[in-house]
């Protein structure tokens, strides 16, 4: 009997290799869809400050090591995460209430926190060299002023982002707008799903990506840190906020009933990186790359008493296939009749239904490519236009004018590798894709994005509302760390005549005033409320973004049709002094973030 079982396993292994399915690299996980989906805890403010103009809520997150049981039959897995959980606590924020989040580093590796999807000022954006070392804390000041969206916070420390994020430093940050209700599922029917592929050692510990220089795809698919979980759902509509938090793996997701696995069940895409789509888009598949977020609505009404599984396409681009990487999450639909469509968030959702006014930049009015960036591999290094982030004198590659629309072309020449490109500060629209898939997906075309999955792309964006030095990079975190990251400098415009002038210059992300400080071991909430939050409020760092962009639009409308500007910028953040001469067009700005084309 033992010999027979061994023969069967060996035969199956040969068949997997012949079909392009690699054998397990991690220990085989034998409990697929047997454990429930964990839901991350909710972050709770510890104190708040209110004056005549604003309210700021204060939170504290501790970066710390902890152990959790990932494989039931192996040792516990060591993680390093936020408040002892992976994913970290979920922030549910209300538009119009600002926040200060204090991150305390109780571990031995440096950290830098990026709130991905926020137009934070540069000292609070997670500049890679602006690290918080062991025994220090840093206060990050967030505006919470953009349209509702699914953001996430994660590590961004130079050279070790992949390691830190992979071991657990990532969490959801959901910005809600009580004035925007389009009748979608909410509350218990609005569920965040952080998908991340991992690789484990024989003792149940994580394989570290520290020595990896190409990619770590992983053969164990986790959702909210649980390998292949299940979720019990009612026969009604749910909204899922899907984030690819893998460090190297991309997905092409689809939904099928276990009873009929060859028939793909449609769902509706309603949101992307920067919030609601212009209109709902029905689809039977979803391409999602590292750091991208999509919000989808699945209607389980017709599937009472059945199991549905969120699947992953095999043979998808450069991602290796393993025995179970074609599965992600099982939905166990409760028996009984469909719940009434009169229930909140369970009404009709029609393909093409209008969701939001995006005020997209007029890409046709700006046909000229302002910058072309080539993402390439040269002599074992991952570079942008031949430059890596370690090349300090040359790493600022663009100087867009504050409040101007630019079109960027992003080109992938690195052979068989794909690159999800993230541009900080802005939202953009994908307007063109050539090579690879050869087309912009319908749900991409209806969205604002901050990550684009790169074959060859163009990006149209309004570089506003703030000035300063921001990063852009590949979000395959192995590539980012080695060394596919650069910077752009949004050059300042004097808006004092419009009533907007910074009390502190936020151009330099490494401004000493806001860098990490030693942590005493306790947080005095009275001092936080009466001093720290008051001082942040008095900075007036986040005036009304739409009003600032309106002022910028008026400013540029009064400029000559072509002006030569020379800008000299110096930053202690590592960007060398640089001078650029640029022709300025009369293109109008958008009142949203930006637009991109792939």
From TrEMBL:
Record-linked Gene3D superfamilies: Cupredoxins - blue copper proteins
Xref: InterPro entries: Cu-oxidase-like_N, Cu-oxidase_C, Cu-oxidase_fam, Cupredoxin
Signal peptide residue numbers: 1-19
Residue span of region Disordered: 568-598
Pfam families: Cu-oxidase_2, Cu-oxidase_3
Keyword terms: Copper, Signal
Coiled coil regions in record: none
The name this protein goes by in its record: Bilirubin oxidase
């Amino acid at each position: 009997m033992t010999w027979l079982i061994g023969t069967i396993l060996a035969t199956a292994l040969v068949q997997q290799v012949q079909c392009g399915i690699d054998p397990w690299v991690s220990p085989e996980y034998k409990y697929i869809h047997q454990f429930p989906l964990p839901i991350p805890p909710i972050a709770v403010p510890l104190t708040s400050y209110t004056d005549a103009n604003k309210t700021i809520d204060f939170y504290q997150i501790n970066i710390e090591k902890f152990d959790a049981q990932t494989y039931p039959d192996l040792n516990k897995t060591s993680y390093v995460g936020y408040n002892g959980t992976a994913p970290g606590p979920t922030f549910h924020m209300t538009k119009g209430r600002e926040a200060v989040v204090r991150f305390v580093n109780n571990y031995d590796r440096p950290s830098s926190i990026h709130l991905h999807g926020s137009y934070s000022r540069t000292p609070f954006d997670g500049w890679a060299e602006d690290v918080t070392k062991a025994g220090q804390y840093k206060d990050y000041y967030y505006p919470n002023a953009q349209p509702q969206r699914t953001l996430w916070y994660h590590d961004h420390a130079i050279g070790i982002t992949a390691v830190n994020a992979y071991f657990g430093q990532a969490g959801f940050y959901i910005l809600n707008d009580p004035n925007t209700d389009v009748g979608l599922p909410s509350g218990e029917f609005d569920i965040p799903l952080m998908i991340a592929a991992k690789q484990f050692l024989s003792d149940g510990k994580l394989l570290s990506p520290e020595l990896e220089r190409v990619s770590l795809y992983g053969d164990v698919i986790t959702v909210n840190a649980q390998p292949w979980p299940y979720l019990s759902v009612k026969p009604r509509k749910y909204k899922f906020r899907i984030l690819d938090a893998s460090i190297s793996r991309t997905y092409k997701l689809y939904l099928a009933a276990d009873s009929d696995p060859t028939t793909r069940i449609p769902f509706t895409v309603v949101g992307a990186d920067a919030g609601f789509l212009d209109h709902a888009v029905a689809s039977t598949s979803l391409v999602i790359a590292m750091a991208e977020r999509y919000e989808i609505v699945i209607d389980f009404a017709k599937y009472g008493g059945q199991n549905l599984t969120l699947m992953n396409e095999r043979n998808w681009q450069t991602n290796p296939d393993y025995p179970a990487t074609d599965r992600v999450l099982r939905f166990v639909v409760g028996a009984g009749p469909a719940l009434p469509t009169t229930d909140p968030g369970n009404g009709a959702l029609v393909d093409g239904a209008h969701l939001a006014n995006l005020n997209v930049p007029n890409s046709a009015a700006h046909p000229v490519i302002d910058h072309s960036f080539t993402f390439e591999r040269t002599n074992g290094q991952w570079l942008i236009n031949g430059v890596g982030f370690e090349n300090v004198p040359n790493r600022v590659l663009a100087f867009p004018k504050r409040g101007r629309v630019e079109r960027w072309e992003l080109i992938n020449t690195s052979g068989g590798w794909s690159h999800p490109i993230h541009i900080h500060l802005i939202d953009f629209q994908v307007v063109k894709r050539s090579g690879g898939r050869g087309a912009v997906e319908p749900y991409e075309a209806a969205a604002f994005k901050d990550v684009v999955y790169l074959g060859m792309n163009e990006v149209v964006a309004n570089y506003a509302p703030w000035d300063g030095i921001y990063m852009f990079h590949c979000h395959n975190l192995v590539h980012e760390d080695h060394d596919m990251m650069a910077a752009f400098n949004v050059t300042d415009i004097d808006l004092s005549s419009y009533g907007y002038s910074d009390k502190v210059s936020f151009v330099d992300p490494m401004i000493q005033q806001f860098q990490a400080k030693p942590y005493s071991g306790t947080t005095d909430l009275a001092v936080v409320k009466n001093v720290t939050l008051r001082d942040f409020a008095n900075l007036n760092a986040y005036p009304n973004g739409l009003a600032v962009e309106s002022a910028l639009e008026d400013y540029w409308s009064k400029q000559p049709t072509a002006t030569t500007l020379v800008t000299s910028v110096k930053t202690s953040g590592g960007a060398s002094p640089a001078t650029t001469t640029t022709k300025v067009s009369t293109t109008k700005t958008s009142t949203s973030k930006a637009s991109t084309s792939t």
